[in-house]
Each structure stands twice: as structure tokens, then as C-alpha cells.
């Protein structure tokens, strides 16, 4: 499957599961965010804001903003006042006569006056102020990253960093912008957006178009989500991230199809390692991604790490020392695990207490050496899978489970014959385009 196919599938998945509250959006946002960003961008809205300001149309808008603000539109506001002895503005004689007779008919020094002044209280300006607020606040959060040498930063932001300062000065000091009130939480309304969209001034039509596209992205509009994913700046590893997320959502869909209406998909709390949990009267299936499911007492520690050093073979000593070197050199746990960590774990607990596991490794490659490495890693996960310190597969004839407990997903292999699922051994291998149609068969073999 190429990138466009993965993006198309993920756009629908995010709309179906994430934005309907049945899948943790923060997990998806954390996986899709460009490298180098901190945890502030692990929520979906922040990720949308980041990609929004990287859009060429936003950069164009900011570049043209100072000149365009000279032609900002204003309205006329009429303020009615009652004065005694002085006149300010135009005298409203009918109201003046009425006011005099209602208070003191002989008071010829009382006047009702209409004072007209320039007003920024128009729909178009509310739309503009909301857009400027989004850009200003996001730039404030992202300025350090825009100034750093990240590949995902739009070249025009990096090459013209004065734009950040221009935007800040404009928002904080421009006399016109300051006179526009801050929009209410619910503003701009759809009617306000429509007014701006039909304005004759590019300042307002462009602002309305950009703000509407931003809102559509937040609402997970299909086209907007596709655009967001297509514009996600990627490094080589991120192609694999897209495939991982695609497979993850296929797991959710396959599990739902197993139990149909009887299964309930529940959102997992943010501090849980689980991504989703499916429960019915007979079983509970918990889905993990990119972690070792420690809350279930699962681990992947090779047996030789428990031996005394004097009992190790030369080969085992090399593995042990490799782990020690990694542990000493790297502070990040991700680099310390010799056996790595599986990308997806599906855990099922039946009512009778039986537990089954499906360990999935994903390789976004057709390279034979990479696939060989993926097979080895998947077999290691199975052989060293432990629950509460005890090996899950104890029998030396079944270190790898039933043959259906391990799954390797690789990219589509062209011009090469591969074995059918029931002809494979020890683990099962699926190509990316086969996942949607064949994953349910794998799950059924594990569950049943």
C-alpha cells in the first residue's frame, strides 16, 4: 500500500473512531506529530493548530497582513446621550422635545444628542480577530521550533523569521486590531463567517476561508483530515508510523466484526497503557500499541538475562553485555530493550480465565533482510513473552504458541509467490493490502 492509500484509510478511521469518542485522540496525535515536539502537541487540537500555521495559505496571509490592515472595514456606531447646557453631536429634536416634556418643559438647556463614532464591531472583524488569535497563540507555542532546523518547518517561516515578529507586533500593537473586541467563545457564528466570505475585501474573504478550513480540521471533516495527514511532515520512520496506525485501526474493526452488536468499544483513560478495550458477556479484549502492556504484568525479557554471568555461553554473554552497554549509554528506555517492543498487542480474557495473546510486529518494507529481521523479532516476542515473570509459552515444543499468536505485517510484495495463511508456520505474515480482509481470520484462530 502506498502512502496515499494509507492516508485515505486513516482519514476515515479517525473520523469513525477517534472523533466519535471511541478511540483516544491523544494517542493518534502523538503518533502523527512531527519529530522534536514536546508533549504540548500530544492533543489533537494542538496538532491541528500546528499544521494549520504551516499551510502556505497562512504564511501568505501573514505576509500580506500589515498592508491589508490599512484598508480595514469599520461601521458607524450611534450613541444617544442626554446633555444639559452643552451639545455633543447632532441634536435629535423629536427626542429632545419628548424628554423635556417628560421631565421639565421649561428646561431649554436639555438636549438629546446622537453622537456617531467609528466602530469595529462588525462580523468581518470578529472573523479576522479569531483567525489572528489562532495564528498568534500557535506561533507563540511554536516559535522555538520554527527557529530550529527541523525539516517539517515550512521553508518560508524559516527563511523569513521576521514574519513571526511581524505577526506578534501586529496582534499586540496594531491600532486597528486592538480596537476589535475579543470574540466570544461561540464566535464567529456561521452567519458571521458567511458575511466575511461575501465581503469584497481579500483581507476578510481569505480570513474566512482559512478559519473555516481550520474548523473543518478540528471537526474531523474527511477532506480536511486527509489534507492534515498529507501535510504531516514525515521522516523515514513516519511511513512506518502510518502503517502502524492503519493496522491498529484494522484491529479495532476486526474485533468489532467478531462480536458484532454484542461487543462494546470503550475509550481508555489517558493514564492507561491500553488503547481500547472491547467487552461482551463472554470475553474482554484489550488493545495495546507501542508499549509492553506493563499494567497487565506482561514483559519480554530473554531467559539468559536471568542467568549468572558464569553460566552464560559466549553468545549469551554478548547479548547480556549489549543490554548493559545500551542501559549505560541511553537514558531512554526505548533503546534499552534488546528484544525491542511489539507494535500491537491484543489481549483476550475469557470468562473461564483462559488468556490468549496476539503479538504483532510491523515492517514497512519489502526488503528480504528487513522481513527476516521482523520474523526474528516476532519469534523473540513470543518466546520471551512473560506474564508476572512467568513464560506464557512454557512447553519447549510450543515456544511460539499455536502458530497464530504472532503476526508480522509487511508492505505489499510484488512478483513473488507467498504461502497462504494456513500453510504458514510458527507465526503468520500478512502484506499490508491483506490486513483488512484477512486479519479477522487470524483473530478468530486466536480467540477460538
Q: Which helices and strands, and how do they pair?
A:
Blueprint: H1 3-18, H2 25-32, H3 44-54, H4 56-68, E1 75-84, E2 90-91, H5 93-103, E3 110-119, H6 123-147, H7 155-159, H8 162-173, H9 175-179, H10 190-197, H11 202-218, H12 222-230, H13 236-259, E4 264-267, E5 274-279, E6 283-289, E7 298-300, H14 314-329, E8 344-350, E9 355-363, H15 368-383, E10 385-387, E11 390-391, E12 406-410, E13 428-431, H16 435-447
Parallel strand pairs: 9-12, 12-13
Antiparallel strand pairs: 1-3, 2-3, 4-5, 5-6, 6-8, 7-10, 8-9, 10-11
Give a description of the structure.
Mean pLDDT is 77; it is low at 233-237, 267-271 and 334-340. This protein has helices at 3-18, 25-32, 44-54, 56-68, 93-103, 123-147, 155-159, 162-173, 175-179, 190-197, 202-218, 222-230, 236-259, 314-329, 368-383, 435-447; strands at 75-84, 90-91, 110-119, 264-267, 274-279, 283-289, 298-300, 344-350, 355-363, 385-387, 390-391, 406-410, 428-431. The two termini are 30 Å apart. The strands form 3 sheets. The chain has a 7-stranded mixed β-sheet. It has a 3-stranded antiparallel β-sheet with strand order 1-3-2. The protein is elongated and about 110 Å long. 47% of the residues lie in helices and 16% in strands. It has 16 helices and 13 strands. It has 3 domains: 35-70 and 123-232, no CATH class; 75-119, no CATH class; 237-301 and 339-447, 3-Layer(aba) Sandwich (Trna Endonuclease, Chain: A, domain 1). With 448 residues, the protein is an alpha+beta fold.
Amino acid at each position: 500500500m502506498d502512502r496515499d492509500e494509507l492516508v485515505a484509510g486513516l482519514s476515515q478511521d479517525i473520523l469513525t473512531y477517534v472523533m466519535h469518542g471511541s478511540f483516544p485522540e491523544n494517542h493518534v496525535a502523538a503518533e502523527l506529530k512531527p519529530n522534536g515536539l514536546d508533549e504540548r502537541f500530544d492533543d489533537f487540537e494542538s496538532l491541528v493548530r500546528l499544521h494549520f500555521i504551516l499551510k502556505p495559505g497562512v504564511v501568505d496571509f501573514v505576509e500580506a497582513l500589515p498592508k491589508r490592515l490599512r484598508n480595514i472595514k469599520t461601521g458607524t456606531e450611534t450613541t444617544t446621550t442626554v446633555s444639559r447646557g452643552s451639545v455633543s453631536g447632532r441634536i435629535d429634536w423629536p427626542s429632545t422635545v419628548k424628554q423635556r416634556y417628560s421631565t421639565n418643559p421649561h428646561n431649554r438647556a436639555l438636549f438629546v444628542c446622537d453622537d456617531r463614532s467609528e466602530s469595529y464591531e462588525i462580523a468581518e472583524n470578529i472573523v479576522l480577530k479569531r483567525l489572528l488569535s489562532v495564528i498568534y497563540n500557535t506561533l507563540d507555542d511554536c516559535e522555538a521550533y520554527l527557529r530550529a532546523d527541523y525539516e517539517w518547518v515550512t521553508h518560508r517561516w524559516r527563511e523569513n523569521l521576521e514574519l513571526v515578529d511581524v505577526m506578534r507586533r501586529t496582534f499586540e500593537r496594531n491600532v486597528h486590531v486592538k480596537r476589535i473586541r475579543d470574540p466570544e467563545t461561540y464566535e464567529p457564528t456561521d452567519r458571521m463567517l458567511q458575511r466575511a466570505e461575501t465581503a469584497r475585501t481579500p483581507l476578510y474573504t481569505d480570513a474566512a476561508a482559512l478559519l473555516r478550513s481550520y474548523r473543518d480540521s478540528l471537526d474531523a471533516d474527511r477532506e480536511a483530515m486527509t489534507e492534515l495527514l498529507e501535510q504531516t511532515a514525515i521522516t523515514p520512520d513516519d511511513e512506518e508510523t502510518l502503517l502502524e496506525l492503519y493496522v491498529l485501526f484494522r484491529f479495532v474493526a476486526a474485533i468489532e466484526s467478531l462480536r458484532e452488536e454484542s461487543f462494546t468499544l470503550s475509550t481508555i483513560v489517558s493514564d492507561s497503557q491500553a488503547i481500547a478495550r472491547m467487552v461482551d458477556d463472554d470475553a474482554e479484549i484489550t488493545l495495546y500499541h507501542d508499549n509492553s502492556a506493563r499494567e497487565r504484568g506482561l514483559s519480554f525479557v530473554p531467559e539468559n538475562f536471568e542467568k549468572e554471568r558464569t553460566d552464560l555461553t559466549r553468545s549469551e554473554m554478548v547479548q547480556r553485555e549489549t543490554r548493559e552497554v545500551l542501559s549505560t549509554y541511553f537514558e531512554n528506555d526505548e533503546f534499552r530493550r534488546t528484544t525491542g517492543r511489539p507494535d500491537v498487542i491484543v489481549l483476550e480474557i475469557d470468562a473461564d480465565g483462559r488468556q490468549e495473546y496476539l503479538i504483532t510486529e510491523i515492517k514497512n518494507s519489502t526488503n528480504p533482510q528487513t522481513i527476516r529481521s521482523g520474523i526474528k523479532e516476532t519469534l523473540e516476542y513470543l518466546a520471551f513473552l512473560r506474564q508476572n515473570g512467568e513464560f506464557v509459552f512454557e512447553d519447549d515444543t510450543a515456544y511460539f504458541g499455536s502458530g497464530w499468536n504472532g503476526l508480522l505485517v509487511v508492505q505489499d510484495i510484488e512478483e513473488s509467490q507467498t504461502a497462504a495463511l494456513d500453510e504458514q508456520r510458527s507465526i503468520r505474515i500478512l502484506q499490508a493490502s491483506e490486513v483488512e480482509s484477512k486479519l479477522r481470520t487470524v483473530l478468530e484462530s486466536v480467540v477460538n
